[in-house]
Amino acid sequence: MATGDGRYLTLAELKGWGLDIDPSTNLPNDSEMGKAIARAEAQWEQLCGCRFDQQTYILVAPSIVFVDSNGWMRLTALEGGPVTAVTAVKTMNVFFGESVWTDITWDATNGILLPAATTPPRPNSWDVLIKPTPPLMCASVGQLYAKWTYTAGYVTTPDALKAHIARLAWWVWKLTREAPLGIVKNPLLGLVDIPLSIPPDIKADSIFWSRGGS
User: Fold this and answer.
1) Pairing between strand 83-93 and 144-152?
2) Which partner from 54, 59, 86, 194 sits 20 to 30 angstroms from 172, CA to CA?
3) Please, which pLDDT band fits residue 174 given cuts at 50, 70 and 90?
4) Are 67 and 73 in contact (CB under 8 A)?
5) 84-129, pLDDT tens digit by residue?
């Protein structure tokens, strides 16, 4: 990863998106553009509620866990999406007074249902269904605690996601460069206010990428 590159967007890609020059051209403000990428990626993840680069999260707590009447345990990821693999699950049924974690096993072929890694992610892209063996008793939300190790995110950043990050990074860079105090001095009109909130079109796009759970 070159200096200034982000997790989803490279510095060269941002230059190619916003400037009519060779993306490999070194510019005096490369450092500021790199910072704009980092800031934009953080803002996008905050808007959407999770990360999208491929990561493995080790023994973290799901946002939701329960066991339905058919014996399937549903876990909803908190940190990243879409979920692509699950390697470990531990549970503790506090409703029945359990105080130690129990390792859960399942049939790797027929005992797990993973979401499809679509672009953008679907509302259930954070949900996983597991059929434990031996089976668990039905448990509602709040009765069963869990920790799991799972992998989530895209191996290669989708072009659609890069476009959203580029749009936001360009806005951040232009705002920092041309209106660092939120205003622009205009000799004819006086001070011109610049909106400091994220542009509404970017917020609208983030809805389709926001962390969900069916």
Assistant:
1) antiparallel
2) 54
3) confident
4) yes
5) 999 999 999 999 999 999 999 999 999 999 999 899 999 999 999 9
Token pair recorded at residue 15: 């230059």
Helix (H, G, I), strand (E, B) or coil at 164: helix
Please report, for residues 92, 95, 122, the alpha-carbon distance to residue 103 in angstroms, rounded to integers and kept in the order given. 9, 18, 29
Tally of CB atoms within 10 A around 200: 9
Model pTM greater than 0.85?
Answer: yes
CA pair distance 92, 203, nearest whole angstrom: 38
Phi, psi angle pair for 31, to nearest 5°: -60, -45
The enclosing H or E element of 78 equals none
150, with CB counted inside 10 A (0-12, 13-18, 19+), is buried
Tokens for 95, please give them. Answer: 């409703």
Angle, vertex CA 170, rays to CA 184 and CA 166, nearest 5: 165
Match 């490279």 to its residue by tokens. Answer: 10
